[in-house]
Specification:
heterodimer, A: Maltoporin, Chain A, five-stranded mixed beta sheet, B: Immunoglobulin-like, 11% helix, cell outer membrane (chain A), siderophore uptake transmembrane transporter activity (chain A)
């Protein structure tokens, strides 16, 4: 019934389309003149009118206006504005190549720029777009540019413990972020447990983070979407980029291909610090490498193919007896097809995979867990008129989950082979959305997504007494596994469980004047797959599990309202947003839950909810020698997990408790200052309330050991987190005719060597027997130097 | 096994950083609670008549644990089938003992403690233990292929759920090392457990050398006790490390039926045990 409803609304929208008349469309793509990269977010408009458009992810734009003579203007921050006189008397196709603003010629220097300058008119709120240039100017730890650490400087985005993977958006958990690399789902964003991110800055074009108001074309996660796009590769000249750092180095090559009908990019990275350590007799080693590939081919004016791929791997060796590794692999084939001046389409076939492998030589067994998905996606944009843009599409994802497989690795291993139930699922989505200019002042985006999740058979499902996989033992006051009374075997052709959800999205922008607006948004989102983790941080051995008979999809409602203002000729902008978010069916783990090698996860969890609210403040300076921003967030994120059908009081007696990613105050200041053509300086100032933790409230002796007893979950807090980082970039004097361009990047992370606690552990000193609290601080002061080059 | 999975991650962090220091932290303080260490350990092949129970009070986390002994409690164990009672008398220093206990394999017993007007009850079953098949030493194997270790082999009975508990201690050690294992992944197999020490200057620990003496206790335990002791060991070993599990209140089986919130810490276990003293060659 629901899909039918959607079709009807699509038809209604399309009937509006037919009424357009006496107007013509101008369409085309906007690219960078120096390397042919398509530009996402460039603004194209007809001077003196309200007709305009922003280029999409593939650089495409389409504007519709009444016949007449116009000045067509293309502007993109950091690039010289281009203007072209046109006579609009038929549909036209005009491609633009624009050049980076030369700092020597321009009066106003444009260096590091933020999003496209704040867009007052678009209803899209709660979004941050970062250009790689901006990210590259921020000080970084160990000299490696890190996209994930950069977005953590934005309001509403926080990190887990230092040295842990993932990020948290508006009080959401790390598994509630949809991370896409060229549309492929990335399941683990970290190398070396969060020391580096999986995104190689040399291969990335731009990064867009949706913290709320998630457009209808995205689905599957309830907190945010991080949309990372790889570069297409230089289609004009062959180019080499590289960087040599203390820990890792990278090299990328790009250039034209197929007789200038396409281009390619190959980028690789690897760490080598372990080699020095091994040379100095250290037996343990940890290292990573990754590879990005991309190529595209212009079949003709209206058809373009893209192929992209990513392969990354982390390896850890501990002497001869332990090895472990994990990695993401993804691949994507895309076909851009332009039906007409007004209709743009893209078809994608996407594959992605994440696996974790562990080899215990001491115990003669190995372990692997894996998630694989295949995704087909089709998106259409219809630029109907200057007032209406329609987007619709569909996608289908097939998942294979291998939650764990244990194999003995020698004949005298005492371990039996074990394969946990392999799980399969389909996640389908169908959406339509319309951005409509209601009046000169009011613009609305109305979207609807219908998602349908099928948990496929091919595995047994345990049946429990009274249908309860987990029960409260009233006598002992603890949760225990329910009584298994049998199991149902589902054939691969059978369906275990299905879920369907209508996900409405609404965004409004009301322009107060030329420079300020008020925006409001509502979104309802569903998430069908969940990361099982009862540890304090996301670890590579956490496994993903689909919704099914026992685990329900997470459903989120988010309301946001904000005030947006540009001032001083768009040099400064101010964004103030407040949000309220709820997530139903957020599972949490009972005390002492055991998730590893656990075939029946349902016996360890209770169904709860999450709520978060906050106020975000972002003040930026986008122009001039000095650029940067100040971001401040005050927020609260809490969880409640009652006993429900299992009985008993639930977790923390069924009271609200802080979610692990709650941070009351979160302040980031980041700035970049261009002193002259040779020197550029950057700095970050970061302050965050310590994260909620569980501390002991007592102790006693048992078996000769001091045993701590712990208080309510997340009732205490670590000390506040703060640090300052600085960096300096030096570009040696170079002759313009030389192709080799180098730069030195010097950085100091945590300049006053604050020992920020990643954790405090409570234990007994084995030498003295006394109890003590031990602080683990991951990064003290970390100086770094790296040399980047371009040829 | 789970333990090792977490430990490896902790190890990774340590390799990377080793930036740990001891700090002063304000921790919450809960009211003191009775602690019952009622470990009825029946040395295999003996009468098992002499048994002790230790009662103490819990304290705030950083307090000295010296003056916590509980005096004046009345303690008895009842055989649930025969209703035979074994009264444990106060021996001072929080120790209550009897020399008349009669252990019976797979027999359920009830512990009753009366202290300051509160009654605490616990019920458990005496769990047998299989024999040790072989005990030997090796260098290859364990966490470190150069360090000496003592290997204990035993045969897990097939097609039944079994749980084991080890306590290792080197002569002169201040603290023992505990290990609890299920046969979940090893059912019916010959199992090997090793005790090895790494050189660690920070805690004054050295690898085993010939002549060193290791005391090993090998217990058969119930599933309910495994759930308790496994969590206890896990929390003891890696409480609150960044990749550890969220620590939780540890509840044993000593309940207070009249006043459930005032339950006792600790556990009433009945387990058959094999004690071995191993001298490294």
């Amino acid at each position: 019934m629901h899909p039918k409803l959607l079709c009807v609304s699509l038809l209604l929208l399309l009937s509006v389309v037919v009424t357009a008349q006496e107007k013509f469309a101008i369409s085309g793509t906007v690219t960078d003149a120096s390397n042919g990269e398509t530009l996402f977010g460039a603004s194209v408009f007809l001077e003196g009118t309200t007709s305009g458009a922003i280029t999409n992810e593939y650089g495409f734009y389409s504007i519709t206006a009444e016949a007449g003579d116009y000045n067509l203007i293309v502007s993109y921050v950091g690039y010289a504005t281009v203007s072209k006189k046109i006579s609009l008397n038929s549909n036209q196709k005009i491609d633009f190549e624009i050049s980076e603003a030369s700092t020597e010629l321009d009066e106003v220097l444009v260096i590091a720029e933020e999003s496209e300058r704040l867009n007052i008119k678009s209803p899209q709120m709660s979004v941050s777009k970062l250009k790689l240039e901006t990210i590259k100017n921020m000080p970084v730890v160990l000299g490696e540019v890190d996209i994930i650490k950069s977005i953590q400087l934005l309001p509403g985005v926080t990190s887990g413990a230092e040295g842990s993977a993932g990020f948290n958006v508006r009080g959401g958990a790390a598994d509630q972020n949809l991370v896409l690399l060229d549309e492929a789902i990335i399941y683990n964003t970290s190398h070396l447990f969060g020391f580096f991110s999986v995104f190689n800055a040399d291969a990335i074009k731009d990064v867009k983070l949706y913290k709320g108001g998630i457009p209808a074309r995205f689905g599957g996660r309830v907190s945010s979407v991080l949309d990372v796009r790889q570069k297409d590769g230089n289609s004009k000249n062959f180019e080499l980029n590289g960087g040599i750092g203390l820990i890792s180095s990278r090299l990328s090559a790009e250039g034209p291909l197929f007789n200038d009908k396409g281009s390619f990019l190959v980028a690789g990275r690897g760490s080598y610090a372990h080699l020095f350590l091994q040379a100095s007799g250290e037996e343990n080693a940890a290292y990573f490498y990754d590879l990005n590939l991309k190529t595209n081919y212009n079949i003709d004016k209206n058809n373009k193919l893209y192929l992209s791929g990513y392969f990354g791997r982390d390896e850890f060796n501990f002497g001869a007896n332990f090895n472990s590794g994990y990695g993401n692999t993804s691949g994507n084939l895309r076909w851009n097809h332009i039906f007409s001046d007004r209709v743009f389409s893209n078809l994608s076939f996407i594959y992605s995979d994440y696996d974790y492998v562990l080899d215990f030589k001491s115990f003669d067994f190995d372990w692997i867990s894996e998630i694989t998905n295949y995704n087909i996606k089709y998106d259409l944009s219809y630029y109907q008129s200057d007032r209406l843009q329609l987007d619709f599409g569909l996608n289908a994802i097939y998942y294979d989950f291998n939650p764990g497989e244990i194999n003995p690795t020698s004949p005298n291993s005492s371990i039996n082979p074990l394969v946990l139930d392999q799980k399969r699922a389909f996640e389908n989505g169908l959406y339509a959305s319309a951005e409509y200019e209601v009046s000169d002042k009011l613009t609305a985006t109305i979207g609807l997504r219908y998602s349908y999740f099928i948990r496929n058979g091919g595995q047994p499902i345990t049946e429990y007494e009274n249908g309860l996989p987990i029960v409260y033992n009233e006598t002992l006051g603890v949760y225990e596994e329910g009584n298994a009374i049998g199991e149902t075997n589902y054939a691969k052709s059978e369906t275990i469980k299905t879920y369907g959800n209508l996900e409405p999205r609404l965004a409004l922008a009301y322009q107060l004047n030329e420079n300020s607006s008020i925006k409001a948004g509502y979104s309802h989102t569903a998430q069908y797959i969940h990361l099982l983790s009862n540890t304090l941080s996301v670890t590579p051995l956490d496994v993903w599990t689909p919704s099914g008979s026992f685990i329900k999809p997470q459903l989120s409602d988010q309301y946001a309202i904000g005030y947006f203002k540009n001032f001083k000729n768009k040099s400064y902008s101010l964004e103030i947003e407040t949000y309220y978010k709820t997530v139903a069916n957020r599972i949490d783990y009972v005390d002492g839950s055991d998730l590893i090698g656990q075939n029946t996860i349902e016996t360890e969890i209770l169904n709860g909810e999450l709520r978060a609210y906050g106020l975000e403040f972002l003040f930026r300076k986008a122009k001039g020698d000095f650029t940067g921003w100040l971001a401040y967030t005050i927020s609260k994120a809490e969880q409640r997990t009652p006993g429900g059908a299992a009985g008993g009081p639930g977790i923390n007696n069924g009271n609200w408790y802080y979610a692990p990613h709650d941070r009351t105050h979160d302040l980031s200041i980041t700035g970049s200052y261009k002193l002259n053509d040779k020197w550029n300086f950057g700095a970050n100032v970061i302050y965050q309330t310590g994260r909620p933790v569980t501390y002991p409230d007592g102790q006693y002796t048992y078996e000769g050991l001091n045993i701590a007893n712990f208080s309510d979950r997340n009732a205490s807090r670590l000390t506040d987190y703060h640090r300052i980082d600085v960096s300096a970039t030096y570009v040696p004097n170079r002759k313009p005719e030389k192709r080799w361009k180098g730069e030195w990047v010097f950085g100091i992370y945590n300049i006053y060597n604050r020992r920020n606690a990643a954790s405090i552990s409570f234990g007994q000193n084995r030498e003295t027997g006394a109890n003590e609290a031990t602080r683990t601080a991951i990064f003290g002061i970390v100086p770094s130097v790296s040399y980047n080059f371009k040829f | 096994m789970k333990q090792h999975l977490y430990n490896i991650i902790v190890l990774i962090l340590v390799v990377f950083t080793s930036c740990t220091d001891v700090v002063d932290v304000d921790v919450p303080e809960a009211a003191p609670r009775l602690v019952v260490e009622a470990s009825i350990d029946w040395e295999k092949g003996t009468q098992g008549n002499e048994q002790f129970i230790k009662l103490t009070m819990s304290t705030p986390f950083f307090d000295n644990l010296s003056n916590t002994d509980v005096a004046g409690a009345s303690v008895k164990i009842t055989n649930n089938t025969t209703n035979q009672e074994f009264v444990f008398t106060d021996q001072g220093a929080g120790i209550y003992g009897t020399t008349a206990f009669v252990p019976v394999v797979n027999q359920t017993y009830t512990l009753e403690i009366n202290y300051q007007g509160e009654t605490y009850i616990a019920e458990e079953t005496m769990t047998p233990v299989v024999d040790i098949d072989e005990i030997s030493q090796a260098r290859i194997g364990g966490f470190n292929d150069e360090a000496l270790e003592v290997d204990i082999y035993f045969n897990d009975p097939p097609n039944q759920e079994n749980f084991y508990f080890f306590r290792f201690e080197e002569e002169g050690d201040l603290l023992p090392e505990l290990l609890a294992i299920p046969d979940e992944f090893t059912d019916g197999n010959r199992m090997k457990v090793f005790f090895e020490k790494e050189d660690d200057e920070d805690i004054g620990q050295e690898e085993f050398e010939p002549g060193d003496v290791a005391y090993i206790k090998f217990h058969g335990i119930s599933k309910q006790y495994f759930n308790y002791i496994d969590l206890l060991i896990e929390q003891y070993d890696n409480a609150a490390n960044p990749f550890g599990t969220v620590p939780a209140t540890l509840k044993g089986n000593c309940i207070n039926p009249a006043n459930p919130d005032n339950y006792a810490f600790g556990y009433f276990r009945l387990s058959q045990v094999i004690s071995v003293t191993y001298i490294f060659q």
